[in-house]
Write a structure and sequence with these properties.
The chain is mainly beta. It has no helices and 16 strands.
Amino acid sequence: GILIRNTFGTAATVDIYTISNNTFTNCRGTAMLLSGTSNVTITGNTISNLLRGRGSDGMVEVGIKLASDSTAPAPANSSGPYSITNNSIHDFQDAASWGITGLGTTGANIIAIYGDVSSKNATITGNTIYKIAENTTSNAVGCGGIRCQFVNVIGIFDESRCDDWIIQNNILYRIGKTG
């Protein structure tokens, strides 16, 4: 996958990126992780068949994650603006197929587009998101043999302080067992 981030704990940001017309398949954990970035366009990419990985939030399968460095001074303690358009994100593994046990009380996030804390000014439009862990129930206990505290199966997730997001004209279907 792709990782683009600022130097943790500094005010610097990583500016002006276009990520377009790429194919990400069988990536472990996260296909794209952008942290402390600004002026980013993500368009025309295909993300499919993600495999379980380990992240700071527990077990993860995330197509696109927008993050910030909360330890840094401004402007790096937030990120954006972002334009995420016309991407196809699909066929993520179900938690039951992970085949691992003994993780204690960690959680699991299975999310197509994830705006972590303080990812600001995102326009998310024209994306097609489907078959995201379609046999996994959100907030399940057990995770198919994995002793999880929680499981989140979500198409688009904007977390705390993700201000000024526009989410429109996306097609989402078969997101988790209940979605």
